[in-house]
TrEMBL record:
The lineage of its organism: Eukaryota, Fungi, Dikarya, Basidiomycota, Agaricomycotina. Keywords: Hydrolase, Signal. Residues 1-22 form the signal peptide. GO terms for molecular function: hydrolase activity, acting on ester bonds. SUPFAM superfamilies: SGNH hydrolase. This is Carbohydrate esterase family 16 protein. It comes from Suillus subaureus.
Length: 320
């Protein structure tokens, strides 16, 4: 009995001290992170879709990490499922990453590198699942399976540490709200209540499907460390409790946006645009009708950085 207890103690200590055996990553383990996704994550230009720096740029600064950004604005997971004329993960971002690692341009130690995947906004939205895509047989199931496949391909290429970010509550954005108006992203007639209800169901179903798929995937990937990050929960909390997150000089605002442009249906007239300037902008959840604000992105960066640096975080669950 004493021998068995000693063996159990040894394995328990190894689980705590050896990153490849433990759940999650250890403090100080991660030095690099690689991003895949859409405009919510695209750090390749400035100002980005949030009017400033994308969250990965802030995270690299907060965690003193090296950022390798492959996310691109407008992206879907795969243009074979939901086509948009932008660089998708499967057709462009992932091949670009694999090409750089295979030809030696990019050399990353797997133990010291973590990969983030945040995709779905454009798959679910206008000109895709919400309004009908070019591939009518595509459903939310195929779209979320694609995101899981991205993780599997990265694992097969040697990656071992991952953060899968679920879809934020798109029904709370101005574009898909029940009080929406003609804007930059959709200036035609539509039933705003119907869009709001449908988008809420698409997001909830998509996130639950992703969670179930991840649970099934984890046991098949030895030595992988996979975190599920609840972007939906974080943004819902920011929406419901803005006083805990926003510190601008204007009143807290979660139903409007910093850069709003109201179009007139069936008109060539210029839109009526309003912009919140200076420190007033830090009071807003949304930058425009679809994208999070700079302050929101700093919050995302803070929370994701905590996960990457091995700290406990209420929005992340390590599955392996």
């Amino acid at each position: 009995m004493a021998f068995l207890q000693s063996v159990k103690l040894v394995f328990a200590l190894l689980a705590l001290t050896t990153p490849s055996w433990a759940v999650g990553v250890a403090p100080g383990q991660i030095k690099n992170f690689v991003t895949f996704g859409d405009s919510y994550t695209d750090s390749s230009y400035y100002p980005t879709a949030d009017g400033g720096y994308a969250w990965p740029t802030w995270a690299a600064m907060y965690g003193d990490l090296n950022l390798y950004g492959f996310a691109r604005s407008g992206a879907t997971c795969s243009n074979l499922l939901t086509y948009r004329p932008f660089p998708p993960i499967m057709g462009w971002q992932l091949p670009a990453y694999l090409n750089e690692t295979n030809n030696g341009t990019l050399e990353l130690n797997p133990e010291e590198t973590i990969y983030t995947i945040w995709i779905g906004t454009n798959d679910l939205g206008v000109n895709a699942l919400l309004t009908g895509s070019d591939a009518p047989a595509t459903s939310i199931v195929e779209v979320r399976q694609c995101a899981i496949d991205v993780l599997k391909i990265l694992y097969e290429s040697g990656a071992r540490n991952f953060i899968m970010q679920n879809i934020l509550p798109l029904d709370l954005t101005i574009l898909y709200s029940n009080y929406s108006y003609p804007n930059t992203y959709w200036d035609l007639e539509r039933n705003t209540t119907e869009w709001n209800v449908y988008m809420k169901e698409l997001v909830r179903a998509g996130n639950e499907i992703t969670s179930l798929m991840l649970d099934a995937l984890v046991p098949t990937l030895p030595d992988a460390h996979i975190a599920s990050f609840d972007s939906h929960g974080l943004f819902t909390d920011m929406y419901n409790n803005p006083q805990n997150y926003f510190n601008g000089t204007a009143p807290h605002n979660v139903t409007g946006c910093i850069h709003s442009c109201v179009y007139t249906v069936d008109s060539t007239a210029e839109p009526a645009c309003t912009i919140a300037n200076g420190t007033d902008a830090d009071s807003f959840l949304w930058y425009d009708e679809l994208h999070p604000s700079q302050q929101s992105d700093r919050i995302v960066a803070r929370e994701i950085t905590a996960v990457m640096t091995g700290e406990s975080n209420q929005w992340a669950t390590w599955l392996s």
